[in-house]
Design goal:
294 residues, alpha/beta, Arc Repressor Mutant, subunit A, D-Maltodextrin-Binding Protein, domain 2, 12 strands, elongated
């Protein structure tokens, strides 16, 4: 079986069309269709349900996709081994939004300098989603908020940043006035169901505050924009790239007791250890410490 045919099948499923897959694979739609037909003949099953203007994966196709993706990953790694190292091919990295805009740009530049043949595939998402993707083997590593539970022995974590709470407002407020200001003004809450939002919920509970909540959001950049537009005030962690434009940023007293930890997680025995080690060292810049299994 030609692995290129599997790659074309996955491209059709992920783009939702033969034309989309052709653009991604830099082939003609006819060539993509021929590859899918060859696969169907080889496997003796129907992989796509074809409509007038669209295609959908069949149940059989959906059942085969995890193994097909695994085959392609192993084929890519085989190519890396033949090339004489592991600093080529693709490294799949999941990251939350503030990491994508804060930590990763400089890390991408440094990685490109040190390993120009290593392609980084970035997958955005919320922490819990990226954690599940890592466990499922869909990611090589994930940069997210520290999980609120102990890691399984199959994963190792490295603390990259510790981000104490800040208060975002447009008002002239001192640290000592934050609690009163929260109680008396509209509040945009960092979603308490998110892993990072739990620390804000703990702060409000410990301070016995029940603010007038405008909305809950698990999107820190959007929260900052809403505060700058005068829609409310917010407690947020001190993420890299936070701009003071249109905002008053006030450190929270005892904010070090409510810290969002940003961690890098990867398998205890990575499939691509050299590439993972390189990226870990670039991100950590010497490292803040590790936890979980060694």
């Amino acid at each position: 079986m030609d692995t290129r045919f599997l790659r074309s099948l996955i491209a059709v499923v992920e783009t939702g069309s033969i034309a989309g897959a052709a653009r991604r694979e830099k082939l003609t739609p006819a060539a993509i269709s021929q590859r899918i037909q060859a696969l169907e003949l080889s496997l003796n099953c129907s992989l796509l349900s074809r409509g007038a203007h669209s295609v959908r994966p069949t149940e059989t196709c959906l059942a085969l996709l995890p193994r097909a993706r695994l085959i392609l990953r192993e084929a890519d790694r085989l190519g890396d081994d033949i090339a004489g190292g592991e600093l080529a091919g693709e490294l799949r990295i999941g990251a939350i939004s503030t990491v994508l805009t804060g930590l990763l740009p400089s890390a991408i530049r440094e990685t490109a300098r040190l390993a120009p043949q290593l392609k980084l595939r970035l997958v955005p998402g919320a922490s819990h989603f990226l954690y599940e993707q890592l466990l499922a083997g869909e990611l090589d590593m994930a940069i997210l908020v520290e999980p609120p539970f102990a890691l399984p022995k199959s994963l190792v974590g490295h603390v990259l940043r510790q981000e104490p709470l800040l208060y975002l407002t447009q008002a002239d407020v001192s640290g000592a006035e934050i609690a009163r200001h929260i109680a008396d003004t509209p509040f945009i809450r960092y979603d308490p169901t998110s892993w990072g939002g739990r620390l804000v919920a703990r702060y409000l509970e410990a301070s016995k505050l029940s603010p007038d909540i405008v909305c809950d959001l698990d999107a820190l950049e959007t929260i900052a924009i809403l505060v700058s537009q005068g829609l409310g005030n917010a407690l947020v962690p001190s993420w890299p790239g936070l701009s003071a434009d249109g905002l008053t940023i006030v450190p929270v007293p005892a904010g070090e007791d409510y810290v969002r930890k940003i961690v890098l997680l990867h398998a205890a025995v990575p499939a691509r250890p050299q590439a993972v080690l390189l990226m870990r060292d670039v991100l950590a810049g010497g490292g803040k410490g590790s936890f979980g299994s060694a």
